[in-house]
């Protein structure tokens, strides 16, 4: 079993690396379908990445090494987080007690470097985007951490792959309402962190309204490819955490588990596409209310599970 | 899906609707959320009755029916009618900002869970959530009552507060005579009816419904 698992880890890692742009493609295709268009091909994000990687990068003279380090550190942090997160199977590549904190802070580190490199350009627009990104990031972090606390209590573990693993299947019976609230909170966190519609619009090209996109305006070539790929990878990471919490599998064999997860990820991407097509972006000053809502959902879940009120 | 998990789910939804009512900026949406909350509450006596004997008794069905007719259909339609015809500016206008009131609400919910843990009950209730949810619904109704500007949101706060009393009453479903509950429902209806008339007159006399301006009513 363990030998089989070790052998399966290699194609699994390759799959995880190859998957993120496809999810972006599914979201774009869903939005196109809603708008009655044909939309770009499913594999368009891969073509875009290949094109960007073959280009040269242009650097402004005001920028320093921080600007060049930004995309690389961001991608490195996300890839490290990916080794600790269970994605297509119920176990992660690496794992130790307390790695959940590391995952959360790796995401934060990636964001910090994106923000720093945006500020390094000296452009006022990018500074504005950076300020918004940090503001919303600060507000979504309590929701994320409270959700993780609830999961930790429900599964009595501090290792991410166990917190969202088969133990959760039993916890659903014991504390269903609390975990359902966590799913709601995590969905809002996912939409915020990956700059999706109720919070940010990835398709907009008006500097005054953009958040994430405005921060990466000055990046070009391979740097921009890293950023695009990193954004997709972040969606894959947070999306699979959400899926593992929402639909825990009770320890099925890998050949059932992994294909089912892939289908679920595709469905999640389609759902995000539906949310993007059916909702307008929130007004900027209403976003904190949404994030406060996510925090309150998670806090309520924590209260429910701490007092053991549901049986 | 036993009666108990259903009850737990409904009660958690009730808290969420309470917090939602603090967060929405449109009066009509607030009224609809209240109607939804009352609909969920109308299901609870049925679940409570069903968990005892398998089928809900006449008593439970009557209470559920009364709640359904009054708090889901009649009162919300009266309130929506006032909002529509009263030329009320359809925004909520809170004293306390939306995010701040949601946070205050969350603190109240946590407080009521802490309080409920210290309240011993003579008989074990259907769900351990009933007491904390009743307390938090009461407190959040009170918060809506004091933190909003318009007379009509104060009616809404009063109604939410009454929903809290209703949840608490579920504990005593078997012990209370039907007449008492129907009496409460009737009182509620008359209360809302009077408030609706008062709101209408405030609006007609003073061209607005800001209750804090009523402090300044002086003959000068």
What does it look like?
- The complex is a heterodimer of chains A (311) and B (220).
- Chain A is mainly alpha-helical and 311 residues long.
- Chain A has helices at 2-18, 20-34, 44-54, 65-84, 99-120, 124-155, 160-163, 167-174, 176-193, 212-215, 221-246, 254-278, 287-307.
- Chain A contains 13 helices and no strands.
- The radius of gyration of chain A is 19 Å and the shape is globular.
- With 220 residues, chain B is mainly α.
- In chain B, 74% of the residues lie in helices and 0% in strands.
- Chain B has 7 helices and no strands.
- Chain B has helices at 3-23, 27-53, 58-85, 98-116, 130-147, 151-170, 178-206.
- Chain B is globular.
- The mean pLDDT of chain B is 77.
- Chains A and B meet through helix 9 and helix 13 of A and helix 1 and helix 4 of B.
Quick summary of this structure?
The complex is a heterodimer of chains A (311) and B (220). Chain A is mainly α and 311 residues long.
Pick out its properties:
heterodimer, A: 311 residues, mainly alpha, 13 helices, B: 220 residues
Tell me the distance between the termini of chain A.
36 Å
Number of domains of chain B: 1
Question: Structural class per helix/strand content of chain A?
Answer: mainly alpha
The helix tally of chain A amounts to 13
| Helix proportion of chain B | over 70%
Biggest β-sheet of chain B, characterized?
none
Secondary-structure element string of chain A: HHHHHHHHHHHHH
Largest interface (C-beta under 8 Å): A-B, 20 and 24 residues
Ends apart, CA distance between termini of chain B = 65 Å
Count of distinct strands of chain A: 0
> Can you count the beta strands of chain B?
0
Strand content of chain A: under 5%
Residue-averaged pLDDT of chain B, rounded? 77
Report the sheet with the most strands of chain A, covering strand number, pairing sense and barrel closure: none
What would you call the structural class of chain B? mainly alpha
Strand percentage of chain B lies at under 5%
Shape of chain B: globular
